[in-house]
């Protein structure tokens, strides 16, 4: 269509404003929607990248804090140890199990204790040459002999479901007359020679369900949560004198002086968790013998002469008595 230049712009504008107006509107709308969708996808991708970066940074920061705490804690240990990375296993029956990056070639022994800078984690369950499988405190087969730092309460701590379904440890059996205070620190007692004495386990948070009889149960919230088990220390043998086998000082805990002595020499109460050698009976001191009572004095005055009994003749002194008369028998 050939039109003079003076009429071309006017005709084009009239056509765009009338006939092509709907087509122009649809084209402009589709372009706007495509731009908005492109912006949303770009913003969503940027948001996801930022979230993943922040999550990675938070996990790295937590890992750095955990490693720094372990570096400062390992210098206070009086036991040999092997540092290990722990990965939580998944699957049926794998609750509370960890795979360790160390094995028997690294010096890991069966039933060795696992600790962190916060306290007890668990123990080695199975081991191979290069890896090991451990159970933490939440595993059904886990049990540890514990006591309060004041040495007044002893028992066995086992995993249970506490209030609101929270996974905790139950301290049992506890004598009915023993009442640990809420917030009391619970450490390993060393009974059974499986876990060294003095490793922090948790704190008492309250009394459990009443089982009747003369015993009670108390809930313990562990110091180490499942999220803090990525890096652990596997304990070995003590590297110092036997008197330094108490690990409470490594965590800054001071036990009662009566409990620092050898555990085997302690007499185990009837309500204690682990039976031990009974104490030798001490001889009772003999009671003093009562003094004999004084005899009462006879008020009758003593008369001079020879006593005369009834039926005897009275004979003066110096005279022989008459012979006794015999009575003939009839």
Strand content: 15-25%
Across the major sheet, the strand order is 1-2-5-4-3-12
Specify the number of helices. 3
The percent range for helix content is 10-25%
Name the average pLDDT: 76
Sheet with the most strands, sense and barrel status = 6 strands, antiparallel, barrel
**Based on helices, strands and strand pairing, what is the structural class?**
alpha+beta
Number of strands: 12
What does this structure look like?
With 330 residues, the protein is of the alpha+beta class. It has 2 domains: 65 residues; 199 residues, Thrombin, subunit H, CATH 2.40.10. Helix content is 22%, strand content 24%. It is built from 3 helices and 12 strands, in the order ααββββββββββββα. The strands form 2 sheets. The chain has a 6-stranded antiparallel beta barrel with strand order 1-2-5-4-3-12. Strands 6-7-8-11-10-9 form a 6-stranded antiparallel barrel. The longest helix has 54 residues. About 6% of the residues have low confidence.
Protein topology:
Elements: H1 5-18, H2 21-74, E1 79-88, E2 97-100, E3 113-115, E4 120-127, E5 132-136, E6 144-148, E7 154-161, E8 167-175, E9 185-188, E10 200-207, E11 215-222, E12 231-238, H3 257-260
Quick overview:
Helices cover 22% and strands 24% of the residues. By secondary structure, the protein is α+β, with helices and mostly antiparallel strands. The strands form two sheets. It has a six-stranded antiparallel beta barrel with strand order 1-2-5-4-3-12.
């Amino acid at each position: 269509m050939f039109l003079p230049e003076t009429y071309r712009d006017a005709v084009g504008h009239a056509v765009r404003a009338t006939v092509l107006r709907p087509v122009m509107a649809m084209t402009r709308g589709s372009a706007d929607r495509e731009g908005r969708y492109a912006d949303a996808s770009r913003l969503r991708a940027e948001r996801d990248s930022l979230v993943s970066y922040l999550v990675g940074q938070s996990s790295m920061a937590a890992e750095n804090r955990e490693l720094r705490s372990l570096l400062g804690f390992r210098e206070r240990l009086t036991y040999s140890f092997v540092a290990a990375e722990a990965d939580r296993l998944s699957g049926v029956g794998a609750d509370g199990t960890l795979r360790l990056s160390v094995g028997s070639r690294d010096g890991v022994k069966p039933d060795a204790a696992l600790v962190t800078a916060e306290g007890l984690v668990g123990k080695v369950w199975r081991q191979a040459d290069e890896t090991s499988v451990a159970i933490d405190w939440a595993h059904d087969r886990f049990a540890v002999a514990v006591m309060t730092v004041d040495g007044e309460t002893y028992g066995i701590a086992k995993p249970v479901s506490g209030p609101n379904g929270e996974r905790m440890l139950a301290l049992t059996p506890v004598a009915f007359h023993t009442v640990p205070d809420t917030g009391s620190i619970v450490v390993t007692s060393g009974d059974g020679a499986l876990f060294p004495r003095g490793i922090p386990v948790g704190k008492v948070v309250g009394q459990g369900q009443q089982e009747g009889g003369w015993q009670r149960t108390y809930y313990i919230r562990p110091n180490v949560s499942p999220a803090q088990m990525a890096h652990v220390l596997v304990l070995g043998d003590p590297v110092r004198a036997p008197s330094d086998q108490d690990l409470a000082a490594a965590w800054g805990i001071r036990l009662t002086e009566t409990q620092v002595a050898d555990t085997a020499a302690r007499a185990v109460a009837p309500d204690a968790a682990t039976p031990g050698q009974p104490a030798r009976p001490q001889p009772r001191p003999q009671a003093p013998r009562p003094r004999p009572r004084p005899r009462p004095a006879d008020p009758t005055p003593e008369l001079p002469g020879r006593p005369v009994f009834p039926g005897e003749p009275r004979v003066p002194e110096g005279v022989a008595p008459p012979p006794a008369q015999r009575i003939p028998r009839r």
